[in-house]
Structure formats: C-alpha cells, structure tokens
Amino acid sequence: STLALGTLNSQFPSGYFIVSQQLTVESLPCLGEKVELNGTIAKTKQSGALDFKLCQIKVERESKPIISLDTILIKPIANSLEKVPMSQEAPFWDQAIYWRTFTPEEVYTFAQLSGDTNNIHLGPAPIVQGMLLFLTIEDYLAVKQLASKSIHVQYLKPVNANEPISLYAQNKVIFGFVKDRCCFKFKVLED
C-alpha cells in the first residue's frame, strides 16, 4: 500500500503531508501471489486555507480489494491564514481562523503551575506544553458552546511561544497551524 501511495507523488506538487490514514485488510496476499496495486486521488478539495487530497490505495486479487488504504493529505495555501472572526452559527467552520499566540511568560507560568520543568518549556524560545494547548482549546470551544465529552489529541509538531496559531476545523477535527505546518489536531469523538 505504501508503494502505491508513493506512485501518486507525481500527480501533485510537494508540500503535502499526511494527516490521517485508515487501513482495511480483508485478507493478506501470499508470498509470490499475483496481485494488482492501484492508487488514485479520489477527491481533491480546496476549502478555506487548505488544499485536501484523498488518496485511495487498493491491493486487489482477481479485481477484488484485499487491502485498502485511504490517506488524507493536506497542504496550507500560502498566505491564506488570515485573522477572520469565527461564525457563531456553524459549530465547525469552513475556513482557517487566527486563534491566539502564547507568550513565553505564559509558557513559563504554566510550567511552574503544572510542575512540567522540561527544559524545552524553559529556554529563550520555549515550546508550548501540549496540556496548555489542550486546556486552552477546550476553554475556547466551551466559550463558543462547542464543548465535547471526548476528544482525541494528536501533536504533530512543536509550537513555540510567539508563534501565531490558526485553527481550521472539518468533520469534527480541529487542526492547529503555525505558518505552513500542521502542529496538532483534536478529534471530537463525542459531543
């Protein structure tokens, strides 16, 4: 399946990265068995500040899929993360919004209050604690009356203090961006 995904690279420019994958295995091929490998870009969408691609990879035996891999790739559109107000009507918005910037002092204070004295949070360019991001986003969503009972968090890249963070949400997943990189995602599992 990974090989088929690699064969699609020539169909779109660089700068995309994997956000999520779903693998389904009906059965495994036997060593030396003849199988077909098919990869397609099933859907392309540009929404707000992001370009999305859904790649579908299939390993087939006698034209029947035995392994399927759906991969969502995203790429921020250059200079499209602007400060815009979030709509009060829609629980999940369709454009990137400026969320906030953490100051070094906020990171230092949270390190003291939480007891998280990891050096990455205490230097001249401190990294924002994952728990600080989590708690602050939960508060933000609660103020917008979007609180949830269950969220799955995935931290993809570090966020440094003094870096403006923009949010984008789609299908109950909130992506946090700094410049052109996706740094975290929050998936709402239960409202």
Give the topology, please.
Elements: H1 2-7, E1 17-25, E2 36-47, E3 50-61, E4 64-76, E5 97-100, H2 104-114, H3 130-143, E6 150-155, E7 165-170, E8 173-178, E9 181-190
Antiparallel strand pairs: 1-4, 2-3, 3-4, 5-7, 6-9, 7-8, 8-9
Protein architecture, described:
- It is a single chain.
- A hairpin with a 2-residue loop joins β7 (165-170) and β8.
- The strands form two sheets. This protein has a five-stranded antiparallel sheet, with no helix packed on it.
- It has helices spanning 2-7, 104-114, 130-143, and strands spanning 17-25, 36-47, 50-61, 64-76, 97-100, 150-155, 165-170, 173-178, 181-190.
- Mean pLDDT is 77; it is low at 79-93.
- The chain has three helices and nine strands; from the N terminus they run αβββββααββββ.
- By secondary structure, the protein is of the alpha+beta class.
In percent, how much strand structure appears in the residues? 35-45%
Overall pLDDT metric? 77
Radius of gyration: 20 Å
User: How far apart lie the N and C ends?
Assistant: 34 Å
Given as residue ranges, the uncertain stretches (5+ residues, pLDDT < 50) are 79-93
Quick one: how many beta strands? 9
Structural class: alpha+beta
Looking at the structure, what is the overall shape?
Answer: elongated
Helix content: 10-25%
Order of helices and strands: HEEEEEHHEEEE
> What strand order characterises the main sheet?
5-7-8-9-6
Count of helical stretches: 3
Largest sheet: 5 strands, antiparallel
